[in-house]
Give the backbone structure.
Amino acid sequence: GVVRYFAFGSNLLRSKMDKRGETGVIACTAGVVPDHRLAFNMRMFPPLEPSMASIEPSPGEVCEGALYTLTRDGYEALWQSEGGGMERPGYEEVSVPVSVDGTIVQAVTLRAAPWMRLRRDAPPSARYKELIVQGAVELGLSDAYVSMLSALPAASPSPALRALATAHGVVAVLLLRLSAALGAPWARRVLAPVRAACYALLRAQASSRAEAQRGAARSASATLVGFTSEAAMAAILLPTAALGASARLVLRACGREGWVRFGPPSAR
């Protein structure tokens, strides 16, 4: 049998699908899911990769994307590459109606699981946004939709903030390992206040940039908000970044640096 799968994030790019292994792509065409919107509410790692794309019900809106026809084994490989084999997957499988040339077909898509879902959208990274825009252009989605994607505010931290966030990430990874090893959910929540503060600052940046694009605010004001937000995030991340940098040095000396290596997450 075959499985119809609707993609809306970086899996719009055929090259991304190919990198996921033997996904068994039989066919791919552009499609539209009515009464849904493209959301960026999957919680990730602010400010490096603040959010990933998801899909949410939204009357009157549409989510454009790629309708793939996959072999059943190919879809299973895709699901595993998206973390489906984990004890607590970050996605849930949902069925959506996809319109293709006026014909409606049902397809499975991957929505952020409730425990990974942010209450409000957060800006994606510039890296991730560019993948989605490239995929939309490659697939031939509507000009209006491509323009909407291109206009989305994106997180693009300075090299200094990126370095602090990377060092902070060492602590985050160690806490995740501790939580898994000890069965201690509290360890996952230790850095929750830091994440919440980063999300609030990133949203403020995004809102200011959007207003400047619409002409509702001066570019100088947006620049000031951006600078202030970056400085605030740097101050918030500094303590754990210092701890993370020290931990990395110790692990490197012990030949265990691989324990805390991380990078951009696999993206849908």
